[in-house]
């Protein structure tokens, strides 16, 4: 069974940093590109970033470019999102999701975690 | 940046009805379009990818069609579990833009 479990969310002040993690299991993690997608309260989903299976290709939404960094450790079956210079508008549930079909990088997400909540407020 | 416009914003139908949801792109996205269903408190669920391919375990009553700028998600006969919010997403230009959603509600 495919499982994605996010962690690392919390309450931070504007300008602070946070690092999200996603633990993957039930599939060959090193064969799939991965997405981070966020959803602000009461809003639709917003794609944040994608990373290819070997980390060679990385893409970001314009809203986070230069502030967020996506990475992965295939040996640990883990995906990460380093978020710096956080703003109030970054407040959202952050989901880790598997990309389909392989070997696409920016593509649909067929499995999602339950999300981790990030709140940016003074 | 490509913009996806979904219509209608809200669709009121009854169980057993046929539902037609549309997603229009501001420029061609080829067949790089996906559809998701989302219920309150849950992550989105992938229904259709690359315009017309049903995802794993998705019932045959969900059909995706279209290419270029105009796409349709059809639910042939609505079941109570189908009432939810539906989003389209494109993956062209290395950006995974979502539409604003269509709420499918019980009439």
Descriptive tags:
heterodimer; A: 122 residues; mainly beta; 4-stranded antiparallel β-sheet; B: mainly beta; 6-stranded mixed β-sheet; 10 strands; globular
Number of strands of chain A: 11
Tell me the greatest interface. Answer: A-B, 25 and 25 residues
Question: Quick one: overall form of chain B?
Answer: globular
| Percentage of residues in DSSP E strands of chain A | over 45%
Helix coverage percent of residues of chain A?
A: under 10%
Overall shape of chain A:
globular
Put simply, the count of helices of chain B is 0
| Radius of gyration over C-alpha positions of chain A, nearest whole angstrom | 13 Å
Helix content of chain B: under 10%
Number of strands of chain B: 10
How many separate helices of chain A?
Answer: 0
Summarize the helix and strand pattern of chain B as letters: EEEEEEEEEE
> Separation of termini of chain B?
36 Å
- Mean pLDDT of chain B, rounded to whole units? 96
Largest sheet of chain B: 6 strands, mixed
For this structure, the quaternary state is heterodimer
Estimated structural class of chain A:
mainly beta
User: What are the secondary-structure elements of chain A, in order, as H or E?
Assistant: EEEEEEEEEEE
Distance between the termini of chain A: 40 Å
